[in-house]
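Incident review: delayed structure delivery

Summary: a single-chain prediction request sat in the queue longer than the usual turnaround. Root cause was a stuck worker, restarted by the on-call engineer. No data loss occurred. The affected request and its eventual output are reproduced below so the record is complete for anyone auditing the incident later.

Affected input:
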Amino acid sequence: MSKHSTDADVAFISALAELLNRNELTELSVKREYGENDSLDVKVVKQSTVVTVAAPASYAAAPAPAIAAAPAASHSAAAPAAPEDPAQHPGAVTSPMVGTCYLAAEPGATPFVTVGATVAEGQTVLIIEAMKTMNHIPAPRAGTVRRILVEDGTPVEYGAPLMIIE
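Output delivered after worker restart:
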């Protein structure tokens, strides 16, 4: 900790917290050197609630279920439509983290949801494994599953669209 606690340090820490939120980071650590034997070590951490489940021993060997394709839209020659970006869909369920996506609780089990299934808000729709932790992903709203955009066992990025619930 710095021997010189100043308004500049408070402003620096506030700026780090804002940077953390703006870039959707969960942790940020910085060391600010003032001179010999004088520095400021700052670690800003955003807490989140995660539901964990013990990982099955052979989960990676799960068979991939068939994913329903989007219904073909009829396009008129006069007005060609741009391809729809699933991430921009108002019913998109996006990944809250980087990890591996699973559609069922264990290999060979019935998937949490299928295309056409009705889901309640908060119902588990899939699992994302991150750092050997199984994170249940709840439905953000009640509705009907229109599309499943990932396959079982697929790696996903933060913010990637996983399914469409309307």
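Verification: The CA atoms of residues 149 and 162 lie 5 Å apart.
Action items: add queue-age alerting; document worker restart procedure.
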